[in-house]
UniProtKB/TrEMBL annotation:
Every SIS domain range: 104-240
GO process annotations (BP): carbohydrate derivative metabolic process
CDD domains according to UniProt: SIS_RpiR
Domain called HTH rpiR-type: residue spans: 1-73
Name under which the protein is recorded: MurR/RpiR family transcriptional regulator
Keyword Acyltransferase included in the entry's annotation: no
Length: 244
């Protein structure tokens, strides 16, 4: 029901509806359109647009199809956040997402130098990505210090793989601007393809899972989609190297 293509077409307000629905599946089953709009902080018109982008004629059809969607889903413990993970893997189970991965591989395969860039949790994932790529025969490095000195030689025949959940982290955007200014290709992996980082990048992959914050600032959004994307790209790069 929630395909990657459909989710990617949602605007910021419609994403608010999607995030609320995914996090509050059972209550949504019994909500009127006005109640859902109020709970998600949007208008009823936005809810209707969301329903249509999910392939439904209206809110009534959405509730029926959503009920069937839940009944077909595996029974998993909800306190672990597995519903978001299951929704992600269901949304990418199609040729379109597979083609996006192939496009990312094409951007990266020809590069002589690969640099993973991220801070905080994304920095840790950048270190992991650099090691994983190196393990499959594509030597890579990482930058997790937003003030790391960058010289012009770093940009030659390089691809910067930039990781950011929000795509709006000031330090990452500053580094992205430097890479872009020196004509270094950028592949970004973000949660939202309308983010500033996604717009700066030459190519962007988005995973569209509900963002979770503690105390309004500490981001604990699941990073399983990022690990999956990194490993999938890495394995395909490994296959290319093995075929040479």
């Amino acid at each position: 029901m929630f395909t990657h293509k459909a989710i990617a077409e949602l605007n910021a307000l419609e994403m608010m509806v999607y995030n609320y629905v995914i996090k509050n599946k059972n209550p949504v089953m019994y909500m009127t359109i006005r109640e859902l709009a109020e709970a998600a902080g949007v208008s009823t018109t936005t809810v209707l647009r969301f329903c249509k982008k999910m392939g439904c004629e209206g809110y009534s059809e959405f509730r029926i199809r959503f009920k069937l969607y839940l009944e077909q889903a595996e029974v998993m413990p909800m306190d672990f956040g597995t519903s978001e993970i299951i929704s992600f893997f269901k949304s990418i189970n199609n040729d379109e997402f597979n083609q996006q991965i192939d496009q990312a591989v094409q951007h990266i395969a020809a590069a002589e130098r690969i640099i993973f860039v991220g801070v905080s949790t994304s920095g840790a994932l950048g270190r992991y990505g650099a090691r994983f790529f190196s393990n499959v025969g594509k030597f890579s490095t990482h930058i997790d210090d937003p003030y790391y000195p960058i010289n012009s030689d770093m940009y030659k025949s390089a691809v910067a793989i930039m990781l950011s959940v929000s795509g709006e982290t000031e330090e990452i955007l500053r580094l992205a601007s430097q890479f872009s200014l020196h004509h270094c290709k950028i592949v970004s992996i973000t949660n939202n393809e309308t983010s500033s980082l996604a717009k700066i990048a030459d190519f962007n992959l988005s995973y569209h899972v509900p963002q979770q914050l503690i105390a309004g600032q500490h981001n604990i959004t699941t990073q399983i989609p990022v690990i999956y994307i990194i490993e999938t790209i890495g394995k395909r790069l490994g296959n290319i190297n093995a075929a040479k």
